[in-house]
DNA sequence: CTAAACTTTCAATAATATTTGAAAGTTTAG
DNA sequence: CTAAACTTTCAAATATTATTGAAAGTTTAG
């Protein structure tokens, strides 16, 4: 397999993985492309490599920047903007975890809090099942939140080293 | 807030969370409904509570069974099938992690393995960036895999207790 | 076996999400 | 300031994914 084929396959695979996890396929592909590019790419480069429109390229790059995964780079003597992706996969992972926590977990925690004070007969098994279900989920979500927080602060090697030793 | 309102809100919230993580909104809603139902529900019950068609109810229940989150229950003297969901949120979490690992992470690991042997000039920075990018991701994915494996085997309290102590 | 009760399938339809491309907006060189 | 170079926006078009409902399939009581 040569480089061009490899790149193509990787971009495809990353896009598929992303889409299964609720991330726009194209956004994941742009990310993949930038991850394996040693130098920053322009919007034109991205459009060409992925065969997508200018608007699409622009939007997805902007989203990647919002996610903290990509940065704008300016080359001196050039008016174009170039884009560069964080390549340390550990940083990428923690950044994604952080964002998803903020965007998707925290809102649910808020709703769960409100749901804890449902009024009703404590002897009604429906009420009981509801309250117990909610509180279990809340406990879980709170722990997940704490674990994630800590992971985000931890360094890659230290974290995995410690975890793996602990769990060997 | 009374029980009916609470249920509705929870089902909505769970559906939204699911859809953001690439899980069919309705599947997540059926799951939510069953999670807070003390007794098993029939297809009819589900159709009525969620206002969905028979086919839709059937398909999503079947998917939940495939994911190992829901079981068929037979009531004696009744030909209908009833459905019951695992309510221990820890078991739910590990089961989901297990399935997603199998369905979505492992296929990517396979592709990454093949991509490691891209032919090309090692001095070409494009080749270098590609090979390094891939190997970093592979390392990460393998570690995630191992960590997940262990989590799956661990018991809820023990796991979180250990993690929290370690990371205090 | 037969018919009623129930479950599953799947082509057509509807809903949702993504993409395009041209127009509008912005920045900067001269 | 002006025009060229570049970026952003967004309504319309496309593509993807989910849902319906009726027909086909299956199971079981009698």
UniProtKB/TrEMBL annotation, chains A, B:
<comment type="similarity">
    <text>Belongs to the GbsR family.</text>
</comment>
<keyword id="KW-0238">DNA-binding</keyword>
<dbReference type="InterPro" id="IPR000835">
    <property type="entry name" value="HTH_MarR-typ"/>
</dbReference>
<feature type="domain" description="HTH marR-type">
    <location>
        <begin position="22"/>
        <end position="80"/>
    </location>
</feature>
<keyword id="KW-0804">Transcription</keyword>
<dbReference type="InterPro" id="IPR036390">
    <property type="entry name" value="WH_DNA-bd_sf"/>
</dbReference>
<dbReference type="InterPro" id="IPR036388">
    <property type="entry name" value="WH-like_DNA-bd_sf"/>
</dbReference>
<dbReference type="GO" id="GO:0003677">
    <property type="term" value="F:DNA binding"/>
</dbReference>
<dbReference type="Pfam" id="PF12802">
    <property type="entry name" value="MarR_2"/>
</dbReference>
<dbReference type="InterPro" id="IPR026282">
    <property type="entry name" value="MJ1563"/>
</dbReference>
<dbReference type="InterPro" id="IPR011991">
    <property type="entry name" value="ArsR-like_HTH"/>
</dbReference>
<dbReference type="GO" id="GO:0003700">
    <property type="term" value="F:DNA-binding transcription factor activity"/>
</dbReference>
<protein>
    <recommendedName>
        <fullName>HTH-type transcriptional regulator</fullName>
    </recommendedName>
</protein>
<keyword id="KW-0805">Transcription regulation</keyword>
<dbReference type="InterPro" id="IPR052362">
    <property type="entry name" value="HTH-GbsR_regulator"/>
</dbReference>
């Amino acid at each position: 397999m040569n480089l061009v084929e490899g790149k193509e396959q990787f971009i495809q695979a990353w896009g598929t993985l992303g889409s299964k996890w609720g991330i726009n396929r194209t956004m994941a592909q742009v990310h993949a492309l930038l991850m394996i590019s040693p130098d920053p790419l322009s919007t034109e480069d991205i459009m060409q490599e992925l065969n997508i429109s200018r608007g699409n390229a622009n939007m997805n790059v902007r989203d990647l920047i919002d996610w903290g995964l990509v940065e704008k780079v300016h080359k001196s003597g050039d008016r174009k903007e170039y884009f560069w992706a964080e390549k340390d996969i550990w940083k990428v992972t923690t950044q994604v975890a952080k964002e998803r926590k903020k965007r998707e977990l925290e809102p649910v925690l808020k709703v769960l809090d409100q749901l804890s004070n449902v009024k009703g007969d404590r002897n009604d098994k429906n009420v009981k099942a509801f309250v117990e279900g909610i509180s279990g989920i809340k406990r879980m979500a709170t722990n997940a939140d704490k674990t994630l927080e800590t992971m985000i602060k931890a360094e890659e090697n230290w974290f995995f080293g410690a975890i793996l030793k602990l769990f060997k």
